[in-house]
Amino acid sequence: MVLLKRKQIRSNLFCINNFTFVHRCYIQIPPANKSDLNSSHHILAFSSSRSGNSGYLETAVPVIKRFLDSKTTNIAFIPFASTDRNYKEYAIRVAEGLKDLSLYVNCALPENAKSIIEESHAIMIGGGNTFKLIHDLYELDLLDLIHKKVGNGTPYISWSAGSNILSPTIATTNDMPVIEPKSFKALNIFSFQTNPHYFNQKTEGFNGETRNQRLEEYLEINPAGKIIGLPEGTGLQLENQLLIFFGEGSGVLFERKEGNFIKTQIKPGDNLSFLLQSQNK
Ligand code: ASP
What we know:
- It is a single chain.
- The protein is α/β, with parallel strands linked by helices and 281 residues long.
- The protein has one domain (21-280): 3-Layer(aba) Sandwich (Rossmann fold), CATH 3.40.50.
- The chain contains 8 helices and 11 strands.
- The protein has a 7-stranded mixed beta sheet with strand order 3-2-4-5-1-8-9. A 4-stranded mixed beta sheet has the order 6-7-10-11.
- A hairpin with a 2-residue loop joins strand 10 (251-257) and strand 11 (260-266).
- The radius of gyration is 18 Å and the shape is globular.
- The site of aspartic acid has 13 residues, from helix 6.
């Protein structure tokens, strides 16, 4: 295998076939301490691709490095949250963001997504517009395939829209419904909702709904629901049925009890596995 020098990277981007973007990076990932990659879900769901003013995927890289096994090299990147449909450019940006990891980033395109996903060691789904993402996953008939593969132990890494679709539905996205999907139902791997880029702000003179108000609206209609607000720089890791909140800063668990909205602060390292109970029954 030829390792590319940085300057060579651009000219070697599409070297498997016309549809596949490959980026070989230099640094080997140390083996993670895990025994059975296929026994349960391995999920790394980031709120966002960047935290504050950090570079693209910069804060995610060390977390991904710890998360992935050294045998995981072949990543299926799913870019369908992009509304401009410039999927190869998107994949290039991702591969450049991940250049310090020893990974191949294979961009799934509408015409080859099934085989790219089937042959991958890990699935990575990026952000953009969540309605566009779920629309395309239904249209290309990829949702069941992803669900099955992830259920069989294939690691799943996501941010923003890619994290939204882990929930039962996409109902707590911040995005506008720019395209009508077949359904709002999503992967249902998490048995709760998330809200990425979570940030609650009320500016003087602004009369629209705050983020908290929008999430409360969801709970009014779905009183048994739970939502985790994921500020930028945070995320959720699910491994061996252990769900941990990680990152910089606190998240918020939104729920409704006895008709009242309850907001509970979540700190990095908190174990949220109790939220998986309904799914694990
Ligand atoms: N637009 C976001 C993203 O994918 C998703 C969201 O805010 O719900 O970056």
